[in-house]
Amino acid sequence: MESLPKCETLVLETQGPVLHITINRPQSRNAMSLQMVDELAAIFTQIESDPNVRAVVIRGTGGHFCAGGDIKDMAGARNQEAEEGTADPFYRLNRAFGAMIQQVNESSKVVIAVTEGAVMGGGFGLACVSDVAIAGPTAKFGMPETSLGILPAQIAPFVVERIGLTQARRLALLGLRVDAKEACALGIVHQAAASDVELEDMLAHTLERIRNCAPNATAQTKALLHRVGHEPMSGLLDSAAEMFAAAVRGSEGTEGTMAFMQKRPPAWADTK
Hints:
By secondary structure, the chain is of the alpha/beta class.
């Protein structure tokens, strides 16, 4: 694994093919600062070209995932004057967050969100772009922006993609907060743990399943899924067939077939 950038708002730890990112701003319930946005963007940029990283686990310290945007950054933007020919400071702040969320959403790596405590605003958006989301018993999810007189501008499109327009309307327009059980029923998260022990067991099982799946095939499958609804179906299926043929003839397809015939784990499943 390549050397990772130094971070002040995040704690990074590698365990085999898995990069663990812990949001580390407990004094603000891990509120998302512009610095955190920049650090997350830098990490995902770097690991995109690192074949040794197959999965990323994002969680928070101090019992919370992420309580939303940092009020200090908002106050700082309010005190800035937009110079002629430059974008409004609030626009730049908001759009930087959206670019990072889109980057995480489109990452070729499998992204797992382990959510506990406050999962609000930007934290809610981050959970909604994960490939697998697991909620602990204390997790509370919400889009409180409208109750603060602002918009969930950058996360709303991803929330709609996650749970559909009807449910996104209800959450966003009423500024609701829901617990882990309801978040699971809505499809915000995939699993809701009844205890901290069960939460860790769910994470361990998820990571084990990732190790059993071929990394290149997984990345290509994720990219294919993202294309659904954005391209005409006939052309998409033509492209998918080409991808399938290349995969069958490729090294992973060959190894997977041989491993199945020989009743052994494939080579990629041995990585710890």
